[in-house]
Amino acid sequence: MDPLKPVKKQLRIRTKSLGTCGLPVLYFRVKFFVSDPGKLTEEYTRYHVFLQLRRDVLEGRLLAQPSTVALLASYALQSELGDYSPDEHGHTYLAEMKIVPDQSDDLEKKIIELHKLHKGQSPADAEFNFLDHAKRLDLYGVDLHKAKDSTNREIHLGVTAIGLVVFQNGIKMNTFSWAKIVKISFKRKQFFIQLRREVSENYDSVLGFNLGSYRACKCLWKSCVEHHTFFRLHTPRAPTKKNMLTLGSKFRYSGRTEFQTVEECKRRARVERTFVRSPSKRFVRQTVPTPSDLGRKGRSGSGSSLRPRTDSSGYKVTSLQGSRTPKMAWGEAHDSDE
């Protein structure tokens, strides 16, 4: 969301044609990821970055090998539950927690074994170790956009603190640093990168990519402008005066840069704030009913019946017939940013 523009204009809300279920849902999330989150001096800031990365792992945006996913999950458990205790936790305490995608019994056993090894780590220590391993992943801090190259192969263009990264089938294929990029532009559904010429070259190289729509292309371009300004410039560029004869977008990043944020932290007195860590949401693992169970339920003919449905936010809601209060079962949410 652009803080300088009205929300209604950005979301294109049509109140006459949309009911209450059709209104958009906004999520608060981390936008810029520093190259080394361990250098964040404030524990409260590190905690928010930890929460964002933990959710990205759960929702499949931050991909990793199963062994790495298990290690990250074990640090998340240490942060939330503390030291493993056989009497308190047992071997089934992960049954009601959704912490990794495709959570299986074998993966849960691996996570529990790793959790036992973190004895003595405070929540801040566990979160620091989580961030230290998460920053090494290829997709850490990457803003991905679907695209196609000149041969019409499906790829992803990732905007990062260091520049643009090209991914194909989840594998990093190429990296174009901000220092090497001379200009970025777009026209309709085409996105262009002009690279700085090498010493042995007599011309600049221009790479073109095709995106799904004009809006997707502009979104990628704006993300590049914001990341380049935040990580490379000391202060944002002043907006140019409006000229009726000038074509093209005049979008400029209007927030603080990384340099300004660091300088402000140095000037102000460092005060460690106290805060309470929020627990993870729990869910009830449902079992598949057997034919005998279904037969008993059909013969009973009375009592309450469960009727699953989906609400406007994408969560599975189970209503209890005859009850005035709906029961919400924790499951997979829709694919939106937090």
TrEMBL record:
<dbReference type="Pfam" id="PF09380">
    <property type="entry name" value="FERM_C"/>
</dbReference>
<dbReference type="InterPro" id="IPR011993">
    <property type="entry name" value="PH-like_dom_sf"/>
</dbReference>
<dbReference type="GO" id="GO:0016020">
    <property type="term" value="C:membrane"/>
</dbReference>
<dbReference type="InterPro" id="IPR035963">
    <property type="entry name" value="FERM_2"/>
</dbReference>
<keyword id="KW-0963">Cytoplasm</keyword>
<dbReference type="InterPro" id="IPR014352">
    <property type="entry name" value="FERM/acyl-CoA-bd_prot_sf"/>
</dbReference>
<dbReference type="GO" id="GO:0005737">
    <property type="term" value="C:cytoplasm"/>
</dbReference>
<feature type="region of interest" description="Disordered">
    <location>
        <begin position="286"/>
        <end position="338"/>
    </location>
</feature>
<dbReference type="InterPro" id="IPR000299">
    <property type="entry name" value="FERM_domain"/>
</dbReference>
<dbReference type="GO" id="GO:0005856">
    <property type="term" value="C:cytoskeleton"/>
</dbReference>
<dbReference type="InterPro" id="IPR019749">
    <property type="entry name" value="Band_41_domain"/>
</dbReference>
<dbReference type="GO" id="GO:0009887">
    <property type="term" value="P:animal organ morphogenesis"/>
</dbReference>
<dbReference type="GO" id="GO:0048731">
    <property type="term" value="P:system development"/>
</dbReference>
<dbReference type="InterPro" id="IPR041783">
    <property type="entry name" value="PTPN3/4_FERM_C"/>
</dbReference>
<protein>
    <recommendedName>
        <fullName>FERM domain-containing protein</fullName>
    </recommendedName>
</protein>
<dbReference type="Pfam" id="PF08736">
    <property type="entry name" value="FA"/>
</dbReference>
<dbReference type="Pfam" id="PF00373">
    <property type="entry name" value="FERM_M"/>
</dbReference>
<dbReference type="InterPro" id="IPR019747">
    <property type="entry name" value="FERM_CS"/>
</dbReference>
<dbReference type="GO" id="GO:0031032">
    <property type="term" value="P:actomyosin structure organization"/>
</dbReference>
<feature type="compositionally biased region" description="Polar residues">
    <location>
        <begin position="311"/>
        <end position="324"/>
    </location>
</feature>
<dbReference type="InterPro" id="IPR019748">
    <property type="entry name" value="FERM_central"/>
</dbReference>
<feature type="domain" description="FERM">
    <location>
        <begin position="1"/>
        <end position="235"/>
    </location>
</feature>
<dbReference type="InterPro" id="IPR014847">
    <property type="entry name" value="FA"/>
</dbReference>
<dbReference type="GO" id="GO:0071944">
    <property type="term" value="C:cell periphery"/>
</dbReference>
<dbReference type="InterPro" id="IPR018980">
    <property type="entry name" value="FERM_PH-like_C"/>
</dbReference>
